[in-house]
Design brief:
Pfam families: Cas10-Cmr2_palm2, Cmr2_N. The structure is a single chain. By secondary structure, the protein is of the alpha+beta class. The protein has 5 domains: about 5-190 and about 210-230, no CATH class; about 235-400 and about 500-575, Alpha-Beta Plaits; about 410-490, no CATH class; about 590-675, no CATH class; about 890-994. About 45% of the residues lie in helices and about 15% in strands. The protein contains 35 helices and 22 strands. Strand 14 (about 765-770) and strand 15 (about 770-775) form a beta hairpin. Helix 11 packs antiparallel against helix 13 (about 345-375). The protein is globular and about 90 Å long. It starts with a helix and ends in a 10-residue tail after the last helix. The model is unreliable at about 60-65, about 165-170 and about 990-994 (pLDDT under 50).
Amino acid sequence: MNDDTIWQIKLAARIHDPAEKALVLLRDPAGHENGTSAALKRLLGLDQLPEHIDPDNDEALSRVIFRKGLPLEIYRQVQRADWWAAAADRPQWPMQEITVTTKNGKQKTLAVAPWAQVRWASQPVLTHPLTGEQYALPGGLSETDIDDIKQRSFEHFSSLLAKSGPQGNDSHDLRKTLLAFWRFGPELVETENFGKLGELWKLLPADTRIPDHSIWDHLDLTSAFAGAFAADPNGEAALLALSIGPAQGFIAAARKMDDLWAGSHLLSRLAWEAMKPVCEQFGPDAILFPRLRGIPQVDLWLRDKMELPNALFEDCDWMEGGTDANPLFSAALPNRFVAVVPANQAKGIAETVQNGVRKWLHELGEDVVSRLLKEAGYDVETTMTPYEQICKQLEGFPEVHWAAVPFSLVQPRNKEKQTDLDVSALSAAMAPFFGKEGAPCGFLDTPAWQALQKDIAWDDHTTFFAPNPGVLYPAVYDLAERVLAAAKATRTFDQREQKGWRCSLTGETEWLTTDRGQLATPPGSREDTLWTRIADKKPVWAKKGEHLGALPAIKRLWPTIFAEEVGKALAAGERGEQKSIDRFVVSTHTMALAHQLDQWLKKGSQTEGKLNTNKTDPVALPRRLMRDHRDNLMLGDAKRIPGMLEMARDADINAYDKAQRQVMLTLDVDKLEVYYALLMMDGDKMGAILSGDEKTAISYRESFHPQVKKGFDDHAATQTLIKQYGNQKRPISPNRHLAISGALNDFSQTVVRHVVEEEHLGRVIYAGGDDVLAMLPVADLLSTMRRLRYAYSGIDPEHEGGISQGLSLQKGFAALKRGKRLQVMRMMGRNATASCGAVIAHHQAPLSAVMRELRAAEKRAKNEGGRDAFSITVIKRSGGALFLTEKWGEPVDLLGEMRKFLADSEVSRRAVYNSLEWLHDLPDPKDKPEMLESLLAYQLDRQSEGNAKAQAPILAQRLAKLAAAQNKDGLNWLQNFLTVAEFLARETRAGGNA
């Protein structure tokens, strides 16, 4: 089929069900299919006969039967896509034969059984797809008027249609309309009458009987399948899994915070450049993982490349920010994707992706060389050596691995109904990966397939479930992942000759030079090189002594290049001149001082001439500190204090000592904080969750609406197959992947930034999917770790059902209050866990060493802690390190309370020191926990006064209980625990968040 027909079919699939279906089902006399969807089809001309059909020719008309307002050619494609999409998520509910009275008399017809007829507006319930927890919307929605809802929906989509500017059946306009519907269909503008529906609109269920996936998930998937069917001559779809890399090493090579941000952000951008060809050919709904709706970089593509009107994006956050707080600066995308594509084009698409992403990086590399040469004063056009180097060093990067598995491995024997499945070809393709030739393997050897592979009869006349190829999405996905892993394992390595001294950051490639003879010059002896000139003229691109290869050079200049790109994008939106974007990176020194600066500004103190900061440039401060004190007259001095200290340190030791004394006097502290914290969090077993981990899989019965469960259970009590189906854990499906991806997007792009930068004084360096990297003052570390862990699951035991600092976490959902707007988001649910590594280090410690310790801490949390754990490393400036690895829950809560207790002015610092002196002489706490508790209580009580004394026995009891519960040496664990708590509680950190 041509492009015109593809976009026509995808658009028909996208509107085959109305968005408001859940609110009008069983309430609208016209039926849900004759509401908004039918009106939009008429408006778009999708209900018109093709030009070659003669309306008076009955034979021709019989071949173009109108179904739901669609010509047969389109209807068949949409119907098949709808069947496949639905089969993966829900059964075919039984129909009963009933007699109805019409003006023509009594007639027999089929209708859904009464027990399965859910009037969702009267009983609005949402089910979390990963936990089965059900959330009943208080008050119900039955008072919402049907006609008003339909009119509001029609007006919403009509406005998108008007703004995207369709003209009849013009393919370009139909594509723009599809893109506008995909992106902004779920974004219902709140009005006086529909304000409470605004956020709920995004979560309206596709099927009121199984309210665990939204109508948008279903429409996305139906459109994806329909587009793939339409673009393949044989109407076949395939699952394409593709990844780029290497990821970890690319991000890890860093000398400063800006390098870490640049590595993660550039990798995210490369991921988008890889996804873009798929989006341009088949629409962004073709990509099932990650979900792309609402990603700022994708929005920019929609506006500038796909030419959607600027007016559609006016309320988007990325249109507002003129600093690096702009969401465009977030690394939002993982380095892999899964897409539904036409089977015959899978290989060509993968090759297009590979060529496109490498070409984009190569052009970026050439731009970097040009900028370096220009800044250093060389002739950009005639100095060819660095261009040759960057071309050679970027050859074959990034690595692109892919696998495609066609759904044609599953053949329905009943072509018309797409049922009675032959899986012999799929089984043969899977066998080599499981070593089971001639026997069922993988998903085909699971209880899920045993329950799903055959029709399930409801009674003698009706079928409850009839599987079609959509049911086998789990097997196709698993096979694609295994083929992709095999492709990665068998990749070849090309040796490249590198001469002379290597890049000072990675040590892997030559550093870029204008004269190859300079490559033989050792460090310390290099004069008048490209990089010595850059260090003099543009130190933000390279410090003295640094000589960088291709990839490190690209990373180092990426903040500058991307800031310019964002400036142009914002200017294009306003039709004005390019904006200058303030690119700020909070230094480790500034982050170490952030808590003390915050406390000082809260006091409303004055510098009173104690400081001379006029000669110092202002530095970037954490966002919350800037927000909370924006009207404080002393904020200007707060911005210059870290810079003043660094300038004095670079001058000489005496100047630094003097500056320190001045700052301590000004801030009214006895000692300046010199430690900061880095936090790295990662979701546990994400691969297993995406592959259908049983812990996060719910049964079919658990996903049913409460009303449906009763009728289902009545039949299941007497029918074994029905009962087996209900108890069967639901296998993975495209909509499960969409739900997971949507939750991870909302967590990383919205919730993480709120927790780190709005609730605390931290700075997000990277947040994409389930991965988080953030920098914090030590005082905020524990509360940030704990809050992020709660937010990941969407459950906060301390504030269940309530709002803390604008964010509510309940039953796997997050609600964030932004002014008058309440943003509701699905999180990963109580069964999904995350582990966290944290490092506390001196601000002058080499970043590469700190990052190594951070990765080791995260690994300890997952391995030694057994996942769902945290691990803290304290790197002492004086030498040595402290380590604490524990589970979430009581240990982190107790650590926070011990920190508070020890930081109290009524508690002596000897409390921990004295306890440690006699601790090693005690018996194992497993044998005599009461002895440990008694001695701890005595020591803590003895070293405290006033109100603090009352806490001593309670803390001692909890400490002794945890020590006794340790699998290994409980006393050693307690020593580490108390030492870390004491370090966190030192006077420079007193008063921070627990």
